[in-house]
Amino acid sequence: MKRWLGSAITLIAMSVLAPVQAQTVVKPAVVYSTGGKFDKSFNEGVSAGVERFKKETSIPVAEFEPSNETQFEQALRRFAQRSQDPIIAVGFSQAVALDKVAREFPNIHFTIIDSVVDLPNVQSVVFKEQEGSFLVGVLAALASKTGKIGFVGGMDIPLVRRFQCGFEQGIKYANPNAELITNMTGTTPAAWNDPGRGAELAKGQFDRGVDVVYAAAGSTGIGILQAAKDRGKLGIGVDSNQNHLHPGTMLTSMLKRVDLAAYNSFKAAQAGDWKGGTQVLGLKEGGVDWALDKDNEKLVTPDMKLRVDAAKAGIVSGTIVVHDYMSNNSCKP
Amino acid sequence: MTVRRRTALGPLPAWAEIVVLPLVNIALAFVVVGVIVAIIGIDPFHALRLLVLGAIGSSESIGYTLYYATNFMFTGLAVAVAFHAGLFNIGGEGQAYIGGLGCGLAVLALGDVVPGWFLVPLAIAAAALFGAGWAAVPAWLQAWRGSHIVITTIMFNFIASALMVYLMVNVLIAPGSMTPASRAFAASGWIPSMHDVLRAAGIPIAASALNLSIVLALLCCFAVWVFLWHTPGGYALRTMGHSPEAAVYAGTNLKRTTMVAMCFSGALAGFVGVNELMGVHHRIVLDFPAGYGFAGIAVALMGRNHPLGVMLAALLFGALQQGGTELAFEIPSITREMVVVIQGLIILFSGALVHLPRPWLQYLFASRY
Fold first, then answer.
1. Model-level pTM greater than 0.95?
2. CA-CA distance, A125 to A274, in Å (whole number)?
C-alpha cells in the first residue's frame, strides 16, 4: 500500500516535471554492511545520503541490514529479482557477493562503496582517504604544542593503514620534527565497536605526551574523543562530521562523503546518466575534506587555515603527491 | 469412589511428545508474537503470511530454508548426542569454527593436487576430526580432572574465535586482500549446489545457498539414531546420561564414554564448516558459525534430543531464519532486531516453557484413552 502510494506520488511528480527534465523511474535499494544502519560512522553516512534522496524526491528506497555474510548475496539477488535499480552495496566485504549477482543481472545497475568490482553494470566508488588524512595531519601538527601526535585506528587492515599513512605525511609536511604514536584497536571487526578500549589507548598516548589524537576507528572513536575531552586534549573525528560531539576539544573531522556516493548514484539513475566504472573520490572531487564549522572555529587560527588551504590547493593541483599505502602495502613510496 | 489426582496422569505417548507438544508450544509463541507485532502497528496475519511465504513460498526460499536447516541439524544433533550422555555441550560454536578450519585447510592444501571425488570426503573427514579434537580437550578435562564441561566448552568458544582471527589475519589471508578471508578454494573442493545438481538432472530451480551438505546432515541424523539406540556404545552412553552409578555398576568406563560422546558431538558440529565453507563461501571466512552452535541447543531441546525431532526442529528454525529475513525485506518497520525477538520468543516457548502445556495435554490424553 505504502509503496503503491509512493509510486503514485512519483508518477504524479514525474508527469509534472517531465517537460522540464527527462527522468526515469527508479526503484533504488541499499544493502548495508553487517555493522548495521545506525553505527554512528560508515553505514550511517550512507544512510544520511539515502535519507536526503528520499526527502528530496519522495521516492521510497528499499533497505536491508544483513545479520550475517551469507545474506549479502541473498539480499542483493532478492533486490535484483524485484527489479530494484540501482542497488547500492555498502562496504568492501560485499565485493565477492556483488561480483556473482551482478553477472546474473546484467541489466540492473549496482554501486559498491569502498571496493572495486570490474563489471560494466557496476559502479565502484572508492575514496582517497590518504588526502583527507593528510590535511588533518597538517592541522594536528600545527595545533600540537608537545610535537607528539597520536593515531588510534580501528581494525588493523590496509584501509586503516592508508588513513594512518596519509596522516603521517601531513604531519611531516607541516612539522618535520613532530612524532607520531600509532595504536590499532584490534584485528577483528569488533575493533570498530569498542569505545572502552579506544579510550584506554588514547589515555596511554596522552601519558606519553600526545596532545592531539586522530580517531579512525568507527564507533570506537566515540571513546577516544571522549577521553580527549576528559583530559583537555584535542581530538580529530572521522567519516562523518563529528565536531558537534565535543565542541571546544574537537580540532576537526576528516570527512569521507559516503553519503554523497549513495546520493549521487540514485540521482544519476533518476536523471538517466548513470555510468559504470570506478570513481576515485579525492579532495579534487569533493569526496574527502576537513570540517570547519562553529564547533571548532575557535581552535583553527587564521594562520592554520591558511597553511591547510595551501596544502589542499597543492594536492588538488598535483604539486603535493600523497602516497597511498595500499599501492604498495608500505608507507614509503 | 476414586479421586483423580494430577500425579495419576500417565506419560504422553511418544508421538505426542515429539510432534504435538512442540506444535502447541509454537502455537502459543505465535500468539504472543502476534500481539507484539500488532502493538508496533502491523497486521499480524499479514506478517504471518509473509513469514510463511518467505520460508516456503518459492523454490528459492525453500532452498534457503533447507540450507539454514542443514546447519541447525548439525549443531542440534551435536547437542543432542552429548545431552544423552548427561553432558551439556555449549561449545558447538567453537567446534563448528575449528571444523571449518579443518576442511578449509584440507581443500587449500590439496585443492589442485587430488581429484574432487577424493578431496571432498577427505575434507569432510578433516572437518569431523578438527571438530572432535576441539571437543576432546574439554571432554578430557571433564573425565580426568572434573572441570565442568559447561564452563570449559564455553571458554573453548572464545579460544577458537581468537585462534581463527589470528590465523585469518596473519597467516591465511589472501595476499592483497582487505577482508580477512583465505584465497578461494579450487573448484574440486566445492560441494555442488543443489540448483546445479538438479539442473543437470533436468529440474530447473532458483539459485540458493542449498548444497548437497544436506544429504550429509540427513545421513548424520540416521547415524545418530543407529548409534544411540542400536549399538552397545550408544546404550552405554545413554545409561551414563540416566545414571552414572548404574553405568559403572554395569561395567561402563565413564571416562571413555565421556570422550566418545564429546568427540562424536564435536565432529557433528564441525560439519557446519562443510556446509558453510565448502558449500557456500568457497573460502575460509571469519565468523561463519554466526550463532548456529548456540541455536543448536534450542534445536535439540525442541527436538527432544531425538534425531527425528532435531530434524523437524531444524526445519522450523531454518524456516524462521529465512522467513524472518524475508519479513525484514518486505516490512521496513520489522528490523533485524525484531526478527530476533520473534525467534527468541519461539525458542522461549519451546525451550524454557516447554512443560507449560504438558499437564493440559496429559489431561486431554488421559480423558480420551
1. no
2. 13
